[in-house]
């Protein structure tokens, strides 16, 4: 935990057999600009928190991305996550530079994972089944959600004050919580 925190690292190459990145492992490593992680079982809480020059994150095959993992990494613009079992609360919260998120088979999104991404334009939810409360709250510029057919559960306020430009949301489940779309639009079509 905290092994490389506050160091001048500019790049990281993880071994193929690495199972876990500990909590705060790369906290406040300002030299990191791009991050590619595959087949790491667990990424700990705040592992890459405050990596202020990080621009691109690609993660494939993790069971868990910890709480506040990339919180306050304020230059992050692109995130691509593939085959992730779960993302813990607030992992990418309040990153104003984030404009694109690609999720492919990311099963569960915890509370507030992408809350407050005010410049987020594009999102692809293909394969996501559970969206926790406040997950995309205060993302007012979202224009695209991609494939939403796999979603089976929506938490409280999960898209509150977001989706102003979205005209259709494909959601066939009967399960959704209180005020999922509060402050969004006059009409929404459910398929």
Report on this structure.
The protein is mainly beta and 191 residues long. Residues 186-191 have low confidence and may be disordered. It has strands spanning 20-21, 34-38, 42-43, 56-60, 64-65, 78-87, 100-109, 122-124, 130-131, 153-154, 168-169, 189-190. 0% of the residues lie in helices and 25% in strands. The strands form two sheets. Strands 1, 2, 3, 4, 5, 6, 7, 8, 9 and 10 form a ten-stranded parallel β-sheet that branches. The chain has a two-stranded parallel sheet with strand order 11-12.
Secondary-structure map:
Elements: E1 20-21, E2 34-38, E3 42-43, E4 56-60, E5 64-65, E6 78-87, E7 100-109, E8 122-124, E9 130-131, E10 153-154, E11 168-169, E12 189-190
Following the backbone from N to C, one meets helices and strands in this order, namely EEEEEEEEEEEE
Radius of gyration: 16 Å
SSE-based structural type: mainly beta
- What summary fits the major beta sheet? 10 strands, parallel
Distance between the termini: 46 Å
Number of β-strand runs: 12
- Pick out the low-confidence regions: 186-191
The coarse overall form would be globular
**Mean pLDDT, all residues:** 88
Helix content: under 10%
Percent of residues in β-strands: 15-25%
Number of helices in the DSSP assignment: 0
The assembly state of the depicted protein chains is: single chain
Keywords:
single chain; mainly beta; 10-stranded parallel β-sheet; two-stranded parallel ribbon
Offer a concise description of the structure:
The chain has 191 residues and is an all-beta fold.
